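Hey, I was hoping to borrow your eyes for a little while. There's a protein on my desk that I can't quite get my head around. The fold is given in discrete form, as structure tokens running alongside the sequence. I'd be grateful if you could look everything over and explain what you see. Here's the protein in full, and shout if anything looks odd to you:
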Amino acid sequence: MSLPDETLRKILIQIQQTAIQSQRAHTLAAQQTSVKERERRILQLTIEEIGGIKEDVNLYKGVGKMFMMVPRKEMEKELKTQEKELSDDISSLNKKTKYLEKQFNESQAQLRDIFHHAPKQQQ
């Protein structure tokens, strides 16, 4: 059983577009993961620095163009919450990256199968 040339061409185009979209989305997700990991590391370093300060010291938090005095405990709690959110984001981006990588590999395998099993034309 052989598919008409036009149908085969449409299928090939669709598979190729899926592969390209998957590869672009994979690259974007990897970049986002890198940015979030950098932000998380900065937060971790900030939390470590704050941990070395006395308990009764107030800290200042940047809000727009001004600074607000914030108790140390409140600042630590806020930073740890942000770190957890970033960790969750990184985890979901890693899952998305793996899915997109799998989708891209499947598209590539489909293309290889189609070309491998395509009938050879005599010239």
